[in-house]
């Protein structure tokens, strides 16, 4: 079965990226404009009459490639269950991944401009407006801002809000300093204190472990280095990422959840072992979800992901897929 699916999909992809039994990712940076975000593309088989688009948004200091494995699994599942073909766009947000090298993504580096970047990418690429946006952590709030901006008409009359959002372990309100464990702030301050050129990945990991960070987190941070001459530099724009994190903390979307656009659905996935949530936030979100159960009027739903911390796509990707796939938007329902 895996070989059959592979043969069906292979001709649809432009460039192979990592071996997979069912799907390959085609990766390219848009050449239509120097000011559009970098992205990769994962598609289902391509033999159906219609095609729908989903944007996949990573978290702080990450990149689209973090979501390759999950996106392939989701596309494989949808190739069987969905009546539409799906094109999944794994975006590198501004200041992150290959988009950190893109010219023209000017300050302020906030959620509003991050959402506008997505709209500019859709327009420049000639895609239909996305039916679904999936965002993790920082990307979750960018997704909420994208829906709000679409509904408000910020991107023009042709823009329509996504039919469905998946906000993965991202709190919708402001993140108060007293309600945060401060780990993210500590990581950012530590990175800002390091030299701009890092001697080696091993040096970085050892240094961060010495400063009290876990080895797994330190190695993940190290994966964001790239070779530059005899040393290593960051794949992200650190100062810009810090500004985006500040915008993430300061921005609230409770009003959007209380009055979502009609014919839309906003799904929150809360990781069971995540440290991002407090009881007041969870209760407020569940209260709104109980009041907003009709898609026609704008629906809000919550899902609990068992056996997972904040890194939902690596802690429990199977459980995440079992939540997302059967509840994924179907354009023909």
From TrEMBL:
Record has Cell inner membrane as a keyword: no
Occurrences of domain AB hydrolase-1 (ranges): 55-321
Pfam family for this entry, one: Abhydrolase_6
Keywords: Hydrolase
Domain of life, per lineage: Eukaryota
Molecular functions (GO terms): hydrolase activity
InterPro entries per record: AB_hydrolase_1, AB_hydrolase_fold, Serine_prot/Carboxylest_S33
Similarity comment: family membership: Belongs to the peptidase S33 family.
Protein name: AB hydrolase-1 domain-containing protein
Lineage: Eukaryota, Viridiplantae, Streptophyta, Embryophyta, Tracheophyta
